[in-house]
Design goal:
Layout (H helix, E strand, L loop, with lengths): L9 E6 L6 E6 L5 E7 L2 H13 L5 H10 L9 E4 H17 L1
Antiparallel strand pairs: 1-2, 1-4, 2-3
């Protein structure tokens, strides 16, 4: 997992067709394209972002919450998100669970 104060990877994405697969370019801190994904659903996008940012496949409940709380709210004309933002969401979620 990337520390929140370290440069991380950027996910630059967009949907070519509404409701179609999302195309994601993964860029390292130097600006080099390191990967390209095609995710066929919001659920697949949630798993891909969480897996890449943390280095581990997320639990099903975590991926479903990320899909609902983050992916579903992303603009459908495209977005950019950092691995730090993904990890920050996980940290906030963990803190909220501790407070309950």
């Amino acid at each position: 997992m990337t520390a929140l104060d370290e440069p991380g990877r950027m996910y630059i994405a967009g949907w070519d067709v509404p409701g179609g697969p999302v195309s994601v370019d993964v860029v390292d801190p130097a600006g080099t394209l390191t990967a390209h994904w095609e995710c066929g659903s919001d659920a697949a996008l949630a798993v891909a972002l969480l897996s890449d940012a943390t280095g581990h496949r997320p639990r099903e409940a975590t991926a479903a919450a990320f899909e609902r709380e983050v992916v579903a709210l992303l603009p459908r004309d495209g977005f950019a998100m950092s691995s730090q933002e993904v990890c920050a969401w996980l940290l906030i979620r963990a803190i909220e669970r501790l407070e309950q």
